[in-house]
Write a structure and sequence with these properties.
Layout (H helix, E strand, L loop, with lengths): L1 E5 L2 E5 L8 H46 L4 H6 L15 H32 L2 H15 L3 H19 L8 H25 L3 H9 L4 H12 L1 H16 L3 H6 L17 H12 L5 H31 L4
Antiparallel strand pairs: 1-2
Helix pairs in contact: 1-12, 3-6, 3-9, 4-6, 5-6, 6-9, 7-8, 9-12, 11-12
Family: Belongs to the binding-protein-dependent transport system permease family. CysTW subfamily.
Function: Part of the binding-protein-dependent transport system for phosphate; probably responsible for the translocation of the substrate across the membrane.
Subcellular location: Cell inner membrane; Cell membrane
Length: 319
């Protein structure tokens, strides 16, 4: 109904069949805008899902063509990886050994240092110190990995050769150490966030029982934040396994079946880079081997993510 005045008299006249009140019109427009926003957000979510499905489809389809020519058992057990030889052999073990060895060296560096930095920033550092250290850590995480690779090749490995003169100019030890330095910001940042999320009441209760700050940090805060800290470790492991340019520059690009970090080796991701540069013709078995190697790397990362999910559920604390 709407009011009309004619000659000083007021009367109620019903709306026409197509008439809509201003308030209702605004509500309809708002609902329409919200619906559009929801669809845009849904589309953004589907982009990530479709991208993942597309990657899996490419890897699996190309790997099927590869395994039509190379037996899976030979791929998993052969200790030689020589796709560029006249008689090529495709055993993933040398690349797998290089990947796991460099990752292990990196984690030996990143986990202790990253955890120590996280504990210091969360429990001991003054706000002014934290405001200075945090940006430097974030800057460390933003440096391109190719720069880290040349840092390992030109600085770290020569320093190691002063201690071990027989050390090769390309080796997994130097590459792994620099990989660990590159991973420190990921471990320390996530671990610190997990520790700072622990309620202050737990710290105050520990102090009331006579505990020191160090005892509180290791016996109260660290166990309470264990779920988030382990998630930081899993992220660091995944980051190390997938690292490419550091090992491509400093580890030697030689697919040796060894777990000795003093020797050169090649990782899965470094081999993919080598073939992608055009060392093998497109469509050949050797070229298709990069998809089988990539599928192996993806399965490793998936396994790590599943382990991380189980660990988070197992040790998650609700406050």
């Amino acid at each position: 109904m709407q009011e009309t005045n004619s000659g000083g008299a007021a009367s109620l006249v019903p709306y026409g069949p197509l008439s809509v009140s201003d308030r209702l019109a605004k509500k309809v427009l708002r609902n329409f805008k919200e619906r559009v926003i929801e669809l845009l957000l849904l589309g953004a979510a589907f982009v990530s899902v479709l991208t993942t499905v597309g990657i899996i489809w490419v890897l699996v389809s190309e790997s099927v063509n590869f395994f039509d020519n190379v037996p899976i058992w030979s791929f998993l057990t052969d200790t030689m990886w020589t796709p560029l030889f006249a008689e090529p052999r495709y055993g993933i073990l040398p690349l797998l050994a290089g990947t796991l060895t460099t990752s292990a060296v990196a984690l030996v560096v990143a986990i202790p240092l990253g955890t120590t930095i996280a504990i210091y920033l969360s429990e001991f550092a003054r706000p002014a110190v934290r405001e200075v250290v945090k940006p430097f850590l974030e800057l460390l995480g933003g440096i391109p990995t190719i720069v880290y690779g040349y840092f390992a090749l030109m600085v770290v490995i020569p320093l190691l050769q002063l201690l071990m003169p027989e050390l090769s100019g390309f080796n997994m030890l130097g590459a792994g150490i620099v990989m660990g330095i590159a991973i420190i910001p990921y471990v320390s940042s996530l671990a610190e966030d997990a520790m700072r999320a622990v309620p202050m009441s737990m710290r105050e209760g520990s102090y009331a029982m006579g505990a020191t700050r160090l005892q509180t940090a290791f016996r109260v805060v660290f166990p309470a934040a264990l779920s988030g800290i382990l998630s930081a470790y899993i992220l660091g492991i995944s980051r190390a396994v997938g690292e490419t340019m550091i090992v491509a520059v400093a580890a030697g690009m030689q697919p040796n079946f060894t777990v000795n970090p003093l020797e050169p080796a090649q990782t899965i991701s470094a081999y993919i880079v080598q073939v992608a540069l055009g060392d093998l013709p497109h469509g050949s078995i050797g070229y298709q081997s990069i998809f089988a190697a990539g599928l192996s790397l993806m399965l490793m990362t998936l396994a790590l993510n599943l382990v991380g999910h189980v660990v988070r559920r197992r040790y998650r604390e609700a406050y």
